[in-house]
Design brief:
single chain, 484 residues, alpha/beta, Rossmann fold, Four Helix Bundle (Hemerythrin (Met), subunit A), 3 domains, 4-stranded parallel β-sheet, 4-stranded antiparallel β-sheet, 15 strands, 47% helix, RNA-binding
Length: 484
RNA sequence: GGCGGCAUAGCCAAGUGGCUAAGGCAGCGGUCUGCAAAACCGUUAUUCACCGGUUCGAAUCCGGUUGCCGCCUCCA
């Protein structure tokens, strides 16, 4: 079963065929580190995290490159405002990136290059473009000439004439064509700068990705990813430069994720709905956020609404309840007990169906549908038969199904926690619990129940409910849990 | 002005030519329970924004209408 990916450059799904058998080169545009990451960055990063995980699960040898843009106008501006060195500011927000994304279960990429470490290469590429006649200088600036490259616009499906006709951009007189873009930008006094043949300055916006992808993946590589908004002009420009300088095909597949809105509005500082990962984590468990961001197909726009996230949380709770029930029956299935190796060998009908779904352009929403089907099925198996017991046959089947489910979860970066821990974390922000007090009340209620004093029993249950404690009376006695 | 996307039940969301339109949340009925909780079973779209067309057959393809959104300028 072949993996199909939607290739933005041809606007169609295509069967993915790697450049080199068994290997995947993946380059994804990371973040510009001048502020905290928001929920939209989280979506993009998680989507490509899942893509990389999935390729690995399918046995590909993946080289995943995700960059940091650590030099740019916004960083300089922000640094000035905060009276910090741009480098220091960038480092701070790189740390914040790791902290936030780490909580969301995002794995490190194989290579995480920073633009400022590649300035030499960028100067070199600019020089190549000059030498080959694709670029020109004007003052201390170097521009890429879009007219010099006939393929310009083909990635994003535009042509220069149409854009010229509708352009609202104030035309920079120094540019020969309004769409020409900067390769090298002369520095103003006090700004970060590097010496170059054209005088002190810094690289233009698009150059770093051309250089770093070339360095780590070569002039032709498999997949280039990023947010939908990067398609134009960033990726168009990046591709033009790379094709002209590196003699390759550049990226063969272009994958772009859709945007996140918040309560139906585009995120913006002025609307005050700029939702950082950090703020979202104050309200929601990280796996709830991750599940939410994967609950819709990655190319579709996704609206972050408190109500919908709460709904998804109920679903995740159901999954973890089943996993906990399973643990009680079979013993833990995560952590030390099951080694990575045995889990990665887990296969069967469910896992195959899951992969089929993921093969279809990474249909995580459909795959989650399968997960919920499986949860119901496993709960059914755990419901006692006529003799009040679970059969041996059911037990062994459950073991295999859990392995498959957790393996799928590994790919999605979900269901990775110990269930007890999960529920504790989910409940803890809202409630202070006094375990002794709860235990005492539960015991008192149990005695009342033995005496068939239902009135007292129910009063205590209501009292506990007030405290955020839910009771479950079972054949082995009463258990309690924090309401979530 | 140019280019592109989306419209599926109360809400969220799969499905893109053909058996009964996944799944989740919420609701309702039932099993279990002293009553609950949890779990399970059943149920909630003769219908996929609207109008035409192609086809033996369309939510799925084509044309038009309406509505929403994105990109064209830094942006995941």
């Amino acid at each position: 079963m072949p993996l199909k990916l939607y290739n933005s450059s041809i606007r169609k799904k295509e069967v993915f065929k790697p450049l080199n058998d068994g290997k995947v080169g993946l380059y994804v545009c990371g973040v510009t580190v001048y502020d905290l990451c928001h929920i939209g960055h989280a979506r993009s990063t998680i989507v490509f995290d899942v893509l990389a995980r999935y390729f690995r699960a399918r046995g590909y040898d993946v080289t995943y490159v995700r960059n940091f843009t650590d030099i740019d106008d916004k960083i300089i501006e922000r640094a000035k405002l905060l009276k910090k060195a741009p480098k220091e500011l960038a480092r701070e927000f790189i740390d914040a990136f790791y902290e936030d994304m780490g909580k969301l279960g995002v794995l490190k990429a194989d290579v995480e290059p920073r633009a400022t470490d590649y300035v030499e290469d960028m100067i070199e590429m600019t020089q190549t473009l000059m030498d080959r006649g694709y670029a020109y200088t004007e003052g201390g600036d170097v521009y890429f000439s879009v007219d010099s490259y006939p393929g310009y616009g083909s990635l994003s499906g535009r042509n220069l004439e149409d854009m010229r006709a509708g352009s609202r951009v104030a035309v920079d007189d120094r540019k020969r064509h309004p769409m020409d873009f900067v390769l090298w930008k002369s520095a103003k006094p006090g700004e970060p700068q590097w010496p170059s043949p054209w005088g002190p300055g810094r690289p233009g916006w698009h150059l770093e990705c051309s250089v770093m992808s070339n360095r780590h993946l070569g002039p032709t590589f498999d997949i280039h990813g990023g947010g939908r908004d990067l398609l134009f002009p960033h990726h168009e420009n990046e591709r033009a430069q790379s094709m002209c300088a590196n003699d390759g095909e550049f990226a063969r597949y272009w994958v772009h994720n859709g945007f996140v809105t918040v309560e139906s509005e585009k995120m913006s500082k002025s609307l005050g709905n700029f939702l950082t990962i950090r703020d979202a984590l104050k309200k929601y468990h990280p796996e709830v956020l991750r599940l939410f961001l994967l609950s819709k197909h990655y190319r579709s726009p996704l609206d972050f609404s408190a109500k919908d996230v709460a709904n998804l949380q109920s679903g995740l709770v159901r999954i973890y309840r089943m996993l906990q029930r399973l643990n009680d029956l079979l013993g833990p299935g995560d952590g030390e007990k099951t080694s990575e190796d045995s889990l990665s060998g887990a296969s069967g009908e469910f896992y195959e169906k899951f992969c089929e779904m993921m093969d279809d352009d990474l249909n995580t929403a459909g795959a989650l549908g399968l997960v919920f089907d499986k949860v119901r099925e496993m709960n059914r198996l755990m419901d006692p038969d006529g003799n009040g017991a679970v059969s041996e046959k059911a037990l062994s089947s459950l073991k295999s199904q859990r392995d498959q489910l957790l393996r799928a979860g590994e790919i999605l970066g979900l269901f990775q926690q110990n269930p007890a821990e999960f529920f504790e974390q989910l409940a803890s922000p809202s409630k202070d619990v006094n375990t002794d007090e709860i235990e005492a009340l539960v015991k008192k209620r149990s005695q009342a129940r033995v005496a068939k004093d239902w009135a007292l029993s129910d009063t205590i249950r209501d009292q506990l409910k007030e405290m955020g404690v839910v009771l479950e009376d079972g054949p082995q006695g009463t258990t309690w849990r924090l309401d979530v």
